[in-house]
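Pipeline run #58 for the internal structure catalog. This entry was flagged by the ingest filter as a single-chain record with no existing model, so it goes straight to prediction. Upstream metadata was stripped on purpose; only the residue string is passed forward. Reviewer on rotation: M.T. Logging verbosity set to normal.
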Amino acid sequence: MELRDIEIFLALAEELHFGRTAERLRVTPSRVSHVIKKAERRIGGPLFERTSRTVRLTPLGKLLRDDLLPAHLQIQQAVDRAVAEARGITGTLRVGYSTPWCADLALQAAKLLRTRYPDCIVRTQEIQFNEPLGPLRRGELDLQISEFPVQIPGVTDGPVLLREPRALMVPADHPLARRDSVSMEDLAEVPLIRADGDFPKSLLDLHMPVRTPMGRPIPHGPSYTFWPETPALVAAGLGASIVAARAARYHNRPGIAFIPFQDGPTLDYGVLWPATGQTQLAMTFVDLLADLTETTTDDE
């Protein structure tokens, strides 16, 4: 059997459907049928039981599948390693993230990268709001997934991966917690918790504005060094925080409530890397991130 014939057989053994197999491999169903019939003639027995409704492996087909799978995987890995070496897709990639949902995305991409390029290593670490760009600018990271926009020298904005509706995290007993939604003007009614540290102005204006759109001052709440302090400060009744709406799934706890905004821009998350450029490994990882978020958006 030729390598392509083996790929068709293994795909059909997994899909158990001629049409899906053909679509997956971008061939015609008749091509799939021809390959299977040719293999059965060469081997001397049926590999599949076919009816108008079902396709099943015969015992002979199961035996062939089980024997071919490890060898086929080895061939794929050998080709992937050669491609990776030729394209420079090797080594260790250091990736930062600022939120749990960015971490989920980074780890999914890392899993895919290791599957395709087993010699690659991805190391991830959390980025704190008190120093959101420090590790990247010091060369401790190759790229990071975090809040947009940044707009500072030495850092390049890559693609936006997620556009999140915003919510206001407030104490559960605050009057705003009884509302179905809030507006940007409502920020004048509650102290806003703020971050200490080197925070780009472009992000401060989105996450911790000092005035409402109509110019009303927003009270200044307590400051935090690390973002995980924020839910505790809110639960204690010391202020509120602008967050992505999905934060309710990651950070909910007694004493706080999440109220969606009816206005204002989204909170965007994307890829940042040093202005000096990317390696081929980093570019491959960014492509995987983009593919994952496109698939997630389509599914939703």
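catalog note: The longest strand covers residues 155-164.
catalog note: The two ends are 41 Å apart (CA to CA).
status: ready for reviewer M.T.
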